[in-house]
Structures are given as C-alpha cells and as structure tokens.
Input
Amino acid sequence: MTVRDGRDDLGTTVTSFMSVSLDPPTVVASVATSSYLTEVLNRQSRWAATVLSSGQRALAGRFAAEGRPSARILLAGEPHHRGDHSDALIPETGQSAMECETRRTVEAGDHTLFIAEVLSADYITRDQEPLIRVNRRYLT
Output
C-alpha cells in the first residue's frame, strides 16, 4: 500500500486487505491505528494497493521493515509508475494494482479499517500465484 503525503511517498505491507463489494468495487485495508501511515491516510483519501505475487517476498519484506525508508527508495530497483488518480507509486509487477479512494474509516481494536472505492485497476495477472501470509508465515 502506498500514498503520497505531499512531502514524500509512504508505503507499508498490509497483511489484511480484502474485497468488500463488486458494485461499486470496494476494498478494505487494515492499518495499525498508531502508525504514521494511518495519520497520513486520514489526511489523504487517495492511495494505491498492490497485490504482490508469490515471488515478491523480498519486496513485501522491505515494505514491512521497521524504520523503512521512503517508498520511492524501496521501489528504486523495481519498475514502477505514479498512479493517475492517487499520485502514489505503483509497482508494475505483481498480481494486481488498484488506486483507491477512502469512503469510510472504522476503528477496530488497535487498527483502523480504510473502506475504499476502487477508482482504477492497473493490471490483473493470472499467471502467478498471489503472495499470501497466514499466521506470520508466507504460504508456499
């Protein structure tokens, strides 16, 4: 998940992301309420989410690391572009990429749920398995 906050590009690996509705296309992303990303997402309604493929564990790990640098630096060696709707950085590889606009937020325990309409989908690839993490481990 990436967002442009005006000063820099922020990103994180979100372990809870799912579809909510097909009409209109709606997703939900769960982000720790105490994180700086939540603060930014409360100010910036548009962001991007990329569903990574099973071969992209290293990229997911870079975005999950504590004290990680800017998303711009994390994607420096990866093909990427800026989204037309969100201005967020979007990797050009993976399962799919979506630009989203938050429609509602819900506090749930120590996380905030960002319920968002999908404004565009950049690509959808079916020739690779998605990267899935369950119980702190990636499925193989």
